[in-house]
Design goal:
The protein contains 6 helices and 7 strands. The chain is α+β, with helices and mostly antiparallel strands. The chain has a 5-stranded mixed β-sheet with strand order 5-4-3-6-7, with helices on one face.
């Protein structure tokens, strides 16, 4: 599915004709992550959902981890659910309908710091030890793949 920006800056599903572009947009986004990602300029916001979708796409395509998972994020007060069925990851802007393996409460800047530096200052990560360790390992995949320009 090829999301588009909604009126509040979040991503919403496309109309049926736009859905055909999903694979193309996905490949272009993957190229951009690997070759053109940069930190926001002064005064330019980093949207939590965009960072989360980029991080999860990186986990999906580069982590070589094929076990199911359910992570509930509360970023800047908004709920997101990231799930893997063992073959593919997804992100939806909603709370988890079932218990999550890990729940992460953070601000967008603190999530970016966790991804790129491993610092968990300002982040609350709850879940069983093994699931939380797996989350920390996988979410850091973006820092290995993405080299900000």
């Amino acid at each position: 599915m090829c999301p588009r920006a909604g009126p509040t800056g979040g991503l919403v599903p496309p109309d049926p004709a736009g859905a055909d572009l999903g694979p193309v947009i996905g490949v272009l986004n993957w190229w951009g992550l690997r070759h053109a990602w940069r930190w926001p300029q002064a005064g330019e916001p980093l949207h939590g959902e965009h960072l989360l979708r980029s991080a999860i796409q990186t986990v999906d395509l580069a982590a070589d981890d094929h076990e199911p998972a359910r992570w509930h994020f509360r970023l800047d007060g908004t709920d997101y659910l990231t799930e893997s069925n063992g073959a593919q990851w997804s992100v939806t802007a909603s709370p988890s309908p079932a218990p999550a393996d890990v729940t992460i409460t953070a601000t967008t800047p603190s999530l970016a710091a966790l991804i790129f530096t491993g610092s968990d200052a300002g982040i609350d990560i709850t879940g069983e030890t093994g699931a939380a360790e797996r989350f920390r390992r996988l979410i850091g995949t973006m820092a290995v793949v993405v080299q900000p320009v």
